[in-house]
């Protein structure tokens, strides 16, 4: 195998490649690149799939070639390489069993280890997200034929291949490196990187790193670098094309004919699955399939129900014969109409003023449920230091924000809740009974995301259902809420701390939801750029009764027309007169009037009185992260990185503040005033305030996680554009770092760029898993942007979903949790390491881990999913939160006080180039703003 086949088109039918996935967070980028370059069908098989050797070889025979992918760990650990060991062992079997193979990173190392080479740690500790020039043997280029060298490639490895290169004298190295020969191995070097040790410190000695190899007699090749990285030179992609041509030539010359699978083991007959995951809406069985049938049967032959609504709104309904099922409020499609009014926003009014104007007359001491997504920095004038920022609309809105969304009447909204690990979801209907809850079972293959996708699809507004004016608002109604970090862990298969069966010594120690969404039909959207307020009502017409209960009174503006009937209706009570078909909402009219007549709206001079600082609860105890313990954890992270277990670990720690306040004023003067204070101290584009689902969240997040929006095109090829903005690399604003140029000088260094690049490639992987090959791009890479009191390095990654594909933005959200900027890479292994490390005592004075050992809302996401299919989600950072189940009371009578526990998470990305002191300082920089409100 010394020559390459002639340059000719790849054969048809479409080639088929097996990809062995070692749970790396870049695998989907490789499968997408292979599919795009080679026109191949790429199937993915996890390295720990339950296949015996013979069964694996039967599977392998159905593919033209196999790629052993990258991943964490070492080839010396059998569990880390799994099925890869069988690939390299095929040379011991019949020739027709041998499948041409390419190993990448861990796969490369497993090839070297299987054929006589040695694997050892790099003396530098590791190269992750680092770009290096790769030198090739131009006299015998093999799969590197036609690739101009040196080319730039991204490295992600802490371990390297040792073929005895260190024993070669320096003067002989330029020639001898291509001729390394040892009776203990059968490998031929193809490419090298000469890495200067301590290069950042001006070191001159080199470490010789093998980058490419082939077996001397078998069709096996390997690449240590990552060809799929966004920063690897695209010209080097020819290496993959050359490899596959060589593989196909070997098959032809050795009589290896790809077998066709039988249909005995699965639908396709193959154990491997498609590289792109199935859409949530295509998964069978449907969560609501059975319940939808019950709904139809239960409504058959009803008498009158809500008939003849033209005259009387909801007439007194006769008894329905069967009643509705307990799931109809969730599973049955409803007819919706969108109604709104737009009014000017006075220049002195801010989002909290609108909320307070709507709450005029509220009983003192109560704390209503709220969901507020606030672009708190949108109205702030850009400083001179920001003028060099590219101010195209999309980028400027992401930096400064544009829209704020206020959910109204949250307490009366249907909500969906889910606790990670449960096999059921819960819907709550507060408008029927405060304790009303319906459990919806999830079968083994079903997830909360499938349930939410089906619910949303049943209520989704079709394109054209709203006017062009209405589409100026990003949110018309739909889901709003939060998702915890632990939900993301469950989604990627990382078990939660002490998860077990409740009541048997296991469990998580609490019953808090990890997913908590309200279906919001009444909302207010503020457009800070245009200076207007949209008051909105998504009117849903259809059954909203549970288990055959009596219907509530009809709303007098419900436009039921003659002939609009619900068969088999439940006992409806007398409704008030409806307005015959008039398209307006009394609720919208009332809210507009309430706002425009409020003291906040009409009298700017009263604003200082209305918003005067309240007396905040007293912080009686603050538990900060222990400096020495945090630095020790950074060192442990670096040891894991050096061992090859991770490329980057986003280590975090928690600060706890216990506050005490009089019961009479605690609810009205704590969380809301904390929010007002934080948004003033640290105005951010993705701030939020949630009092919902047993949680209270006060956030000043600068980081957009994911936004998506359906787009129509004149040629009918409609698509949904998805955008993610991983944020890694932070420097505090100061007198020394006051301008964007000064921040760029500090952030455009190898360590900071590597932190960002690793997460960029991870995010690309998440998007490729849903959007598929050739549908992911990086329009903005490693750009520094200003955010309040800090500068951040940000990259924009975009993906597209074709409308006919069946995928929605919810598919991308479900596939991308937890946020990669809060985990590190590879995501699954890194999350498992962090789970254990962060549970260690954060103070040497403490002998126990935290009560739950969870990040909870911190590192999760907050946002919305609109009925139009749009969505916008932010990462929950620079935030504080508390849970109702941690609230206690001390004293009694007039001296009774409420004691709350507030949590603040902060941390940073640990790489091999980190220092414990530097990571400690970054953690405290991020902690300082939310902590400052307790001063």
UniProtKB/TrEMBL annotation:
The Glutamine amidotransferase domain extends over 19-236
| Domain (Anthranilate synthase component I N-terminal) ranges | 397-529
Q: So, what pathway does this thing act in?
A: Cofactor biosynthesis; tetrahydrofolate biosynthesis; 4-aminobenzoate from chorismate: step 1/2
Keyword Transferase recorded = yes
Q: Where is this region: Disordered?
A: 296-322, 544-581
Q: Which keywords does UniProt give here?
A: Folate biosynthesis, Glutamine amidotransferase, Transferase
PROSITE patterns in the record: GATASE_TYPE_1
Q: Which residues form the Chorismate-utilising enzyme C-terminal domain?
A: 628-926
Task: Write the Enzyme Commission number(s) for this entry.
Answer: 2.6.1.85
Any Pfam family hit? Chorismate_bind
Q: Which reaction does it catalyse?
A: chorismate + L-glutamine = 4-amino-4-deoxychorismate + L-glutamate
Low complexity: compositionally biased ranges: 567-581
Q: Which InterPro entries match?
A: ADC_synthase (IPR005801), Anth_synth_I-like (IPR019999), Anth_synth_I_N (IPR006805), Chorismate_C (IPR015890), Class_I_gatase-like (IPR029062), GATASE (IPR017926), TrpG/PapA_dom (IPR006221)
Q: Specify the protein name.
A: aminodeoxychorismate synthase
Species this protein is from: Sporothrix stenoceras
Biological classification of the source: Eukaryota, Fungi, Dikarya, Ascomycota, Pezizomycotina
């Amino acid at each position: 195998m010394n020559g390459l086949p002639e340059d000719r088109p790849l054969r048809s039918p479409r080639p088929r490649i097996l990809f062995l996935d070692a749970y790396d967070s870049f695998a989907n980028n490789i499968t997408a690149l292979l599919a795009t370059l080679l026109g191949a069908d790429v199937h993915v098989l996890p390295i720990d799939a339950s296949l015996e050797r013979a069964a694996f070889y039967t599977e392998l025979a159905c593919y033209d070639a196999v790629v052993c992918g990258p991943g964490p760990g070492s080839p010396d650990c059998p569990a880390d390489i799994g099925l890869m060991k069988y690939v390299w062992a095929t040379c011991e079997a019949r020739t027709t069993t041998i499948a041409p193979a390419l190993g990448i990173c861990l796969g490369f190392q497993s090839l070297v280890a299987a054929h006589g080479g040695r694997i050892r740690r790099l003396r530098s500790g590791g190269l992750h997200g680092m770009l290096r020039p790769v030198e090739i043997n131009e006299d015998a280029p093999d799969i590197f034929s036609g690739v101009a060298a040196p080319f730039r490639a991204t490295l992600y490895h802490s371990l390297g291949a040792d073929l005895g290169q260190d024993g070669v004298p320096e003067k002989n190295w330029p020639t001898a490196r291509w001729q390394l020969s040892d009776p203990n191995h059968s490998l031929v070097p193809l490419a090298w990187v000469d890495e200067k040790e301590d290069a950042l410190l001006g070191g001159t000695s080199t470490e010789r790193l093998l980058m490419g190899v082939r077996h001397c007699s078998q069709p096996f090749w390997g690449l240590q670098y990552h060809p799929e990285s966004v920063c690897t030179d695209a010209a080097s992609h020819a290496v993959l094309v050359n490899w596959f041509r060589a593989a196909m030539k070997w098959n032809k010359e050795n009589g290896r004919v790809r077998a066709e699978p039988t249909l005995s083991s699965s639908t396709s007959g193959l154990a491997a699955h498609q590289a792109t995951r199935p859409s949530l809406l295509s998964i069978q069985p449907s969560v609501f399939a059975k319940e939808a049938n019950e709904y139809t049967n239960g409504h058959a032959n009803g008498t009158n129900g809500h008939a003849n609504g033209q005259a009387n709104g909801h007439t007194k309904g006769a008894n329905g014969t069967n009643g509705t099922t307990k799931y109809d409020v969730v599973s049955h499609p409803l007819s919706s109409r969108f109604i709104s009014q737009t009014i000017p926003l006075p220049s002195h009014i801010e989002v909290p003023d609108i909320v307070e104007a709507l709450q005029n007359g509220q009983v003192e001491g109560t704390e209503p449920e709220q969901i507020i997504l606030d672009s708190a920095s949108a109205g702030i004038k850009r400083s001179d230091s920001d003028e060099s920022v590219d101010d195209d609309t999309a980028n400027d809105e992401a930096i400064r924000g544009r829209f704020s969304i206020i959910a109204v009447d949250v307490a009366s909204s249907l909500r969906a809740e889910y606790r990670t690990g449960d096999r059921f979801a819960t819907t709550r209907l507060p408008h029927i009974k405060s304790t009303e809850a319906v459990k919806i079972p999830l079968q083994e293959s079903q997830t909360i995301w499938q349930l939410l996708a089906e619910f949303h699809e049943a209520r989704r507004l079709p394109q054209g259902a709203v006017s062009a004016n209405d589409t100026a608002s990003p949110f018309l109604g739909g889901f709003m809420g939060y998702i915890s970090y632990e939900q993301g862990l469950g989604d990627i298969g990382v078990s939660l701390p002490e998860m077990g069966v409740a009541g048997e010594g296991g469990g998580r120690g609490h019953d808090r939801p990890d997913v908590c969404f309200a279906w919001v039909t009444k909302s207010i959207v503020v457009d800070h750029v245009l200076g207007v307020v949209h008051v909105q009502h998504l009117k849903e017409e259809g059954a909203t009764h549970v288990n055959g209960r009596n219907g509530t009174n009809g709303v007098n503006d419900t436009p039921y027309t003659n002939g609009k009937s619900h068969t088999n209706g439940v006992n409806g009570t007398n409704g008030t007169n409806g307005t015959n078909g008039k398209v307006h909402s009394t609720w919208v009219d009332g809210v507009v009037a309430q706002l425009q007549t409020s003291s906040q709206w009409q009298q700017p001079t009263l604003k200082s009185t209305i918003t005067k600082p309240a007396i905040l609860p007293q912080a009686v105890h603050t538990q900060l992260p222990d400096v020495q313990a945090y630095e020790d954890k950074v060192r442990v992270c670096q040891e894991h990185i050096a061992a090859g277990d991770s490329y980057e670990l986003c280590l975090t720690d928690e600060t706890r503040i216990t506050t005490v306040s009089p019961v009479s004023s605690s609810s009205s003067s704590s969380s809301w005033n904390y929010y007002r204070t934080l948004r003033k101290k640290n105005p951010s584009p993705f701030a939020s305030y949630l009092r919902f689902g047993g949680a209270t969240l006060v956030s000043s997040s600068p980081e957009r996680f994911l936004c998506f929006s359906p787009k129509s095109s004149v040629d009918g090829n409609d698509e949904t554009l998805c955008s993610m903005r991983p944020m890694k690399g932070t420097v505090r604003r100061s007198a020394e770092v006051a301008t964007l140029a000064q921040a760029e000088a500090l952030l455009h260094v190898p360590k900071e760029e590597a932190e960002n690049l690793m997460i960029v490639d991870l995010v690309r992987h998440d998007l490729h898993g849903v959007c598929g090959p050739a549908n992911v791009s990086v329009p903005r890479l490693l750009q520094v942007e200003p955010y309040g009191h800090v500068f951040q390095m940000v990259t924009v990654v975009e993906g597209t979903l074709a409308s006919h594909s069946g995928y929605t933005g919810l598919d991308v959200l479900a596939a991308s949790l937890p946020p990669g900027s809060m985990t590190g890479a590879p995501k699954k292994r890194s999350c498992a390491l962090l789970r254990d490390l962060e549970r260690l005592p954060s103070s040497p004075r403490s002998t126990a881990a935290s009560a739950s050992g969870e990040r909870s809302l911190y590192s999760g996401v907050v946002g919305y999913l609109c009925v139009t299919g749009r969505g916008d989600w932010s990462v929950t950072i620079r935030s504080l939160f508390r849970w109702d189940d941690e609230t206690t009371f001390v004293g009694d009578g007039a001296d009774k006080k409420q004691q709350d526990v507030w949590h603040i998470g902060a941390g940073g990305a640990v790489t091999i180039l980190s220092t414990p002191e530097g990571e400690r300082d970054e953690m405290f920089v991020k902690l300082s703003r939310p902590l400052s409100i307790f001063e």
